[in-house]
Design goal:
Rossmann fold, five-stranded parallel beta sheet, 11 strands
């Protein structure tokens, strides 16, 4: 029987990517999340997926008849779904790891039913020292962990990982043209969520430059507003430069991965701007941030970033060189085939 996987993720883009990747590797995958019906996703950040559907499993979730069936099901996996996983299936959880700990006696009984059954915690940097300490007894009891960044090891009292597997991105089939001499950024509520989105860095670094912030909430600060995925890709290919501002305290890099793969020249904020305390006294978001390590250009100072962006806008030939560097980084670190091979090695043959 084909190996089966149930995803309990908390981010629709990562859910889309995992469903796409794991299904292509030959696993049977069901997601308790925004893609519980892959052809009709709950969010429009990515499109539908033409992959196998499991109406009987969706019915088990719907039968909970809760105001939030998805959250309720992740917190208390319906028995038919555990049965469907068989003797070598895997449950993969995002952060909100309390959904694992809160039902651990059931999951432990399920795991003990066969040595091939696995419970996996897929972390994305959204953890602090108390989370790590809480995880230790469950890690010792057999919860496996996949980290997404080597920087996660800087979290105080880090409980360790069994594998380090990056997010992946797809190299674009379209060439970057950079014909629109503007600086862009793609984020959700860039201004409204300051300081967690580092909007002041963006505002200072792009002052007096042609700039267009993009994504939900950007319409209030002179930007495009929400974009379809196709429109976002079009902007990445046509725009001259991308200023990656990261986020605090978790250094989510999905926007950076999209930009690098598209080939748009990337300038990143530097780690010294990551000052928000996380966890216990003395630890800041800078210890988790790695956007500067993954970008061809970066600066701790908005003025430095401003000069880099201005040069990209004024010198198309130089921008083309940085574009090639951006795509080279994407191929080296976030290649779909490389990441897929790592998942296959960790999960075992379908």
């Amino acid at each position: 029987m084909t190996k089966r996987i149930v995803l309990c993720l908390s981010h629709s883009v990562e859910e889309h990517m995992q469903l796409d990747l794991l299904t292509s590797l030959g696993y049977e995958v069901f997601s308790i999340g925004g893609y519980i019906d892959p052809l009709h996703p709950h969010a429009d950040l990515r499109g539908p997926l033409d992959i196998p559907v499991y109406p009987e499993l969706k019915a088990a979730v719907d039968a909970l008849d809760s105001p939030d069936n998805l959250g309720a099901a992740q917190s208390n996996i319906p028995a038919p779904i555990l049965d469907w996983l068989g003797d070598d299936g895997a449950l993969i959880y995002h952060h909100k790891e309390e959904r694992i700990w809160g039902q651990w006696p059931r999951l432990l009984d399920w795991k003990r039913g066969n040595a091939g059954r696995r419970v996996i915690w897929r972390t994305v940097g959204q953890s602090v020292a108390p989370n790590e300490r809480a995880a230790r007894p469950y890690r010792m009891a057999g919860v496996e962990r996949i980290a997404y960044s080597p920087r996660e090891a800087n979290i105080p009292d880090y409980s360790g990982h069994d594998a380090l597997i990056r997010f992946w991105g797809q190299q674009s089939d379209h060439e970057w043209t950079g014909e629109d001499a503007i600086v862009i950024n793609i984020a959700q509520h860039l201004r409204q969520r300051e300081p967690f989105t580092n909007w002041t860095f963006w505002d200072s670094a792009t002052r007096d430059l042609a700039r267009v912030p993009m994504g939900p909430g950007s319409e209030h600060i002179g930007g495009s507003g929400p974009l379809s995925y196709a429109a976002m890709q079009n902007a990445l290919h046509r725009s001259r430069a991308f200023l990656f501002c990261g986020s605090q305290p978790a250094p989510y890099t999905l926007a950076l991965i999209e930009a690098l793969h598209a080939g748009i020249p990337v300038v990143s904020i530097g780690p010294e701007w990551m000052r928000i305390k996380y966890g216990e006294e003395g630890h800041t978001a800078a210890e988790l941030f790695e956007g500067h390590e993954l970008s061809p250009l970066w600066s701790n100072d908005p003025n430095g970033a401003h000069h880099m962006l201005r040069r990209l806008l004024n010198e198309p030939e130089y921008a083309a060189v940085v574009s090639a560097e951006s795509r080279a980084i994407a191929r080296e670190v976030f290649d779909r085939d490389t990441v897929g091979a790592q998942w296959a090695a960790f999960l075992g043959a379908p």
